[in-house]
Amino acid sequence: MKKKASGSLALVQRLALAPYSVWSVLFIVVPLIFVAYYAFTDLQFHFTTDNITRFFTATSVVADEAGTREVHTYLLIFMRSLKLAVISTVICLLFGYPFAYLISKASERTQSVLITLIMIPMWMNFLIRTYAWMTILQDTGIFNGFLSMLGLGRIHIIGTESAVVIGMVYDYFPYMILPIYSVMAKMDVKLIEAARDLGCNGAGVLRRVIWPLSLPGVISGVTMVLIPSISTFYISQKLGNGKFYLIGDAIEGQYTANNLHFAAAIAFILMVILLFGMAFMQRFANKRTAV
Amino acid sequence: MKKIIELKGVSKSFDGQLVLDHIDLDIYDNEFLTLLGPSGCGKTTTLRIIGGFETADEGEVIFMGEEISSVPPHKRNVNTVFQRYALFPHLNVFENVAFPLREKKVPKAEIDQRVNEMLSLVALKGFEKRSVTSLSGGQQQRVAIARALVGRPKVLLLDEPLAALDLKLRKDMQQELKNIQKATGITFIFVTHDQEEALSMSDTVVVMSEGRIQQIGTPIDIYNEPKNAFVADFIGESNIVDGVMLRDRRVSFSGHVFDCVDEGFEPKEPVDVVIRPEDVDIVPEEKGMLRGVVTSVTFLGVHYEIIVDIDGFKWMIQTTDFVDVDEHIGLYIEPEAIHIMKKSEYSGMFGDYSSFSMELDEIGELEQIEELGELTEEPEKEGESEG
């Protein structure tokens, strides 16, 4: 009897999972295979590693204030993407962590109000949000209007790296707060009392108990902000005035120029790098929480 | 003996609800003191005020001669063993115990030595590298005790530390805690709602109810000389009957005049009389000072617990002699077995076992009716059985 019951339960579970399995095979696994296939083939669909090699070897000549020089095009673009993504992630963490802590300490009612407020922008399309930031940050935009109203003079933001970072931070901020908040909300208040009892002042409690226990949330928050901001493409075009060509823009550019095989190669390399990065962070997370 | 903590007129309310009502309590050096009472009596709040986790609305908290109401927990020379241990899950056994020493920047060699000393005190040598989440409840308890003692506090606060353990383990830990307290000479303030635990471990028991201290005394005093009906009922089993003090050493209750050993009451003063169930002797009916009918008998291994109806008031008696239900028996009570208490706000609320037996009767009747209903289904027959 018991065995039969659990057997039919497993069947129900499998049936319930079926739509998702079909969906993920069709729209995740198959496309990934296509990406890999295109990355390693040429226009005649013969096997080649040229696309991959091109990513690492292609050069171009850059002329700016520092002079004229030859650079590795795609490595430079990748490093620029990484730099902006890391800056955005650090800013998200610096603001998101204390914010998540404060939310988790608020009354239950306030908590749900604040979490809803954080999620509301996520319901809007991110293109629309990015356009909104264009109007805010333009030289004649709302932000500069506000500054000049206060008599502080205008500043030029749009088309700078700062504008791109602002856009990224705004878009991915909720993904930093939510996982950290959910870990902190579950944290046992008695642990904080125990730390106070055992001689920790406020800073000591934060450093020795709250921070290490919230680390899993921090790691998933960092992952969820860093990875999409490395591969983002639209923000840099609209807020950076196209001056900061990022790896996502490179993929999009090659794709729209109908270089499908090279676009697939860039995407494939990016994916491999990110997978290694995530595996490393996961290891780090396991090590810190398994002690 | 030296006073280590004094509470003077301490009061505390939560959301307008008075939880502590002007508590006065002196705690002495090297003492095992227990705060005992039902849930909601204010015992945990008292502990948290001493630990610094709550601030009293009124009154003074004096620690070794100094008022410490505004001193935060990490600056008090007091440590706590929390109810559910509150061990740090990200640290192993050694690091949990070393936690307060690292905060004080104690040299590494001394940390090793002191942590090892504590781990052997609680019999956890060899567990240093283990994760605290892999330990059993009893072992986690020991880590919590070692962690609270390693900083050499003057006072250890224990908030129902044994509540989560099973009976056998609880008994062992009671003994062990008592031994640790003697070995270290640290004052223990122990909170529990388990009266047996309180009696077996403590030097001093503080019985609390509704935010007030009802009685402070040694376990023997509290048991033998309860101050009011609440204490008499909460500590052990008690028959509490209305009586009148005729003069010194003479009391009348249940229609009989008894010799007793209490003095100092007004003539004709109404009093509460306490007789413990184990202090009543069963004698043949004609030789009894009181006479009654047995209404229930429960076998409890060591003794029988019987309920005797004496003129409508139900007494509980513990005896090793077998008597049967409906048997008419006599009761004999020694003068030393009678304890007289002043009337209090708790008079008449406790100490009658009729509710105890009636509950059982009611459950029995309900079961009978249900059985009948199942058998017959027809409402007329049910009516017949009631009539």
Lateral strand order in the biggest sheet of chain A:
1-2
Average of per-residue pLDDT values of chain B:
88
Q: How would a crystallographer describe the biggest sheet of chain B? A: 6 strands, mixed
Largest interface: A-B, 21 and 28 residues
Beta-strand fraction estimate of chain A: under 5%
Average pLDDT score of chain A: 88
Quaternary state reads heterodimer
Number of separate strands of chain B: 20
Name the CATH class of chain A. Answer: Mainly Alpha
Query: Segments of chain A where pLDDT lies below 50 for 5+ residues?
Result: none
Rg of chain A to the nearest angstrom? 24 Å
Q: Helix count of chain B, per DSSP?
A: 10
Structural class of chain B: alpha+beta
Broad CATH class of the largest domain in chain B: Alpha Beta
Topology of chain A as a string of helices (H) and strands (E): HHEEHHHHHHHHHH
From the alpha-carbon coordinates, what is the Rg of chain B to the nearest angstrom?
A: 26 Å
User: What percent of residues of chain A adopt helix (DSSP H or I)?
Assistant: over 70%
CATH topology of the largest domain in chain B: Rossmann fold
Shape of chain A: globular
How would you summarize the topology of this molecule?
The complex is a heterodimer of chains A (about 290) and B (about 375).
Chain A: H1 2-39, H2 50-57, E1 59-64, E2 67-72, H3 73-105, H4 108-119, H5 126-137, H6 142-149, H7 161-186, H8 189-197, H9 202-231, H10 234-239, H11 247-256, H12 260-290
Antiparallel strand pairs in A: 1-2
Chain B: E1 3-14, E2 17-28, E3 32-36, H1 43-51, E4 58-63, E5 66-67, E6 78-81, H2 93-103, H3 108-121, H4 137-149, E7 155-159, H5 167-184, E8 187-192, H6 195-201, E9 204-209, E10 212-217, H7 219-224, H8 229-234, E11 239-247, E12 250-253, E13 256-259, E14 269-275, E15 280-283, E16 290-299, E17 304-310, E18 313-319, E19 328-333, E20 338-342, H9 354-376, H10 379-386
Parallel strand pairs in B: 3-8, 3-9, 6-7, 7-8
Antiparallel strand pairs in B: 1-2, 1-4, 4-5, 9-10, 11-12, 11-14, 12-13, 14-20, 15-19, 16-17, 16-19, 17-18
Helix pairs in contact in B: 2-3, 2-4, 3-4, 9-10
